[in-house]
Structure formats: structure tokens, C-alpha cells
Amino acid sequence: xxxxxICIANEGYEASLIVSKVYRRLPDPEAEAHGLTRVLxxxxxxxxxxxxxASFFVPVELPEKARRALASYPLSS
Length: 77
Known about the structure:
By secondary structure, the protein is α+β, with helices and mostly antiparallel strands. Helix content is about 15%, strand content about 30%.
């Protein structure tokens, strides 16, 4: 199941992350062990997403209709 997070900070990544935007979080246990989170950001050229500090995001529980809508977007352009 897709997980989603809200961006709460973007220092140093202003071109890639928008504060208050919901992003799809991709599972990456190794990155998480190092305090990082992998998300699909504004650069849709990579289906693998990009790593950012986990402190930049908070998990969000979305209504099912919103989850389906966001999950239906392709992982690449």
C-alpha cells in the first residue's frame, strides 16, 4: 500500500520540495536506518524517487478516495 507524507521543511532543496505538499513515500529500509526518506519529488524523471532528511516530512493518513487518486499517478512522466 502506498504511504504518503507532508513536507514540513525544504532547506537546501527548495527547487525539489514544496512545503505543505503531499508526497508519495517509497519504502527504503536502508535509507531510513540513516535518517533519510525516499520520496517522489518534483523531478519526475526518476521512478526510484530521491532521498531527503526524514525530518523534512511527517506521515499523513489520507481518505481512501485521496489515496486512490494520488496512487494512480504514474511514477514517471
